[in-house]
Automatic annotation (TrEMBL), chain A:
It comes from Arachis hypogaea. GO terms for molecular function: acyltransferase activity, transferring groups other than amino-acyl groups. Residues 14-169 form the N-acetyltransferase domain. Pfam families: Acetyltransf_3. InterPro entries: Acyl_CoA_acyltransferase (IPR016181), GNAT_dom (IPR000182). It comes from the Eukaryota. This is N-acetyltransferase domain-containing protein. The lineage of its organism: Eukaryota, Viridiplantae, Streptophyta, Embryophyta, Tracheophyta. PROSITE patterns: GNAT.
Automatic annotation (TrEMBL), chain B:
Transmembrane segments: none annotated. This is N-acetyltransferase domain-containing protein. PROSITE patterns: GNAT (PS51186). CDD domains: NAT_SF. One of its GO terms (molecular function) is acyltransferase activity, transferring groups other than amino-acyl groups. SUPFAM superfamilies: Acyl-CoA N-acyltransferases (Nat). Residues 9-160 form the N-acetyltransferase domain.
Amino acid sequence: MERDREESVDLAQISLRPLQLSDVDDLMVWTTDEKVPKFCTWEPYSSKDQGIDFIQNKACEFLWSRAICLHDRAIGFILMTSCSATDQSREKSVELGYVLGSKYWSKGIMTYVVKQVKKVAFREFPHLERLEALVDAENVGSQRVLEKAGFHREGVLRKYLFFKGKSRDMVIFSVLSTDLNHQD
Amino acid sequence: MSNLDLSKISLRPFKLSDVDDFLLWAGDDQVTQNLRWKTCGSREEALAFIRDVCIPHPWRRSICLDDRSIGFVSVYPWSGDDRCKADIGYAVAGDYWGQGIATKAVKMAVPQVFNDLSHLVRLQAFTSPQNKASQRVLEKAGFLKEGLLRKYTYFKGNIKDSIVFSFLSTDEFPHDD
């Protein structure tokens, strides 16, 4: 990852709001960039229809989601899904996912956003016990985001996922409702 | 300590005729306390459980001593994109604890499971941090302990920590001791 020293970002200009259809052109910037979904299950988008489909049909299916905005322009996306979708015994757990345009990497933006969303999660879902995130073992940048945002690294789940033709070791992180009482 | 000849331990599918032996251990709270199973309260319940759950199960075997059921090993594969992984569980009748039977059964099951489930890459197991005996079974069977997952799951009405272990299709089987 390159450090773009010419353009630092005033984090006070970062905001979260629901994704709208009018964000589609901004969304296409990060969804067509090969670097961005490298560790995601999805392939880079090749048509605006995919962007429209995501905003209209997919974004609303998440338990919670927001566009990450700089000066109210969407530069990324953050979401939460309920773990009970795949496992009924895990209804008190929620999984965090996020994506950011590569131009905005390494500026502390994602860490800043995750810190906010961590607090939002336990406020929005008062019965939530555990917020977790799974990161590809090769995605060091994203692991650093979670560590700096106060998540506990619990271990590496070997060959936990299989996508884009290969098995992935996933690092699992968590933050508990009880952790928050001892943090910022 | 063990006088039991472990070569008498075998794995096979459940049969309805296992019901009386099944009830001995599936009806024992000590055995089911670490399982998601409800303790079987009657012969009828046991029969229904064998017929409706054990027999149609994707991969469940009776652990047998001289062909009599004294426990089970189960593997539940995930579906769709997640069929690269499956969860393993097991239990042995209380009278037979401490003799290496569960370890032997798991060691027997692992190569069979990877042979039977074609997309399987990762066999995983979740144990309670308090259940040291079960953790030892997995370690002796060659599983790798990956970490402690805090407040991971709801178990019989309470939120619990889980220790996660895994055995991959590429892992080496441990030597028989």
